[in-house]
Amino acid sequence: MSLMITDECINCDVCEPECPNGAISQGDEIYQIDANKCTECVGHFDEPQCQQVCPVDCIPLNPDHVESKEQLMEKYIKLTGVQA
């Protein structure tokens, strides 16, 4: 699954620079995650970095974008061109 940012977001700006895929950007009111770029940090890190730094724990899995670890790895390879 890709991740999502809920409306509990306080716009603290710490998640955006942590995303290795550039999937996080400022939305109209809160930060948002582009599901096409989010790999839950698969290929980069063992755990999603945005979740690790979020002070309000507002970055859950997105139930609208269910993906397996294999699919996330395929997305990582497509985004980076790096074979794992």
Keywords, separated by commas or semicolons:
single chain; iron-sulfur; Alpha-Beta Plaits; 4 iron, 4 sulfur cluster binding; 2 helices; 4Fe-4S
3D structure, described in words:
The chain contains 2 helices and 2 strands, in the order ββαα. Helices cover 20% and strands 7% of the residues. It has a single domain (16-80), classed as Alpha-Beta Plaits (2-Layer Sandwich), CATH 3.30.70.20. With 84 residues, the protein is an alpha+beta fold. The chain has a two-stranded antiparallel sheet with strand order 1-2.
In a few lines, what is going on in this structure?
This protein has 84 residues and is of the alpha+beta class. 20% of the residues lie in helices and 7% in strands. It has a single domain (16-80), classed as Alpha-Beta Plaits, CATH 3.30.70.20.
Q: What is the strand arrangement across the widest sheet?
A: 1-2
| Spans of at least 5 consecutive residues with low confidence | none
Helix content: 10-25%
Subunit organisation of the chains: single chain
Contiguous helical run count: 2
CATH class label? Alpha Beta
Strand runs, count: 2
Radius of gyration: 12 Å
Topology:
Blueprint: E1 24-26, E2 31-33, H1 49-53, H2 69-80
Antiparallel strand pairs: 1-2
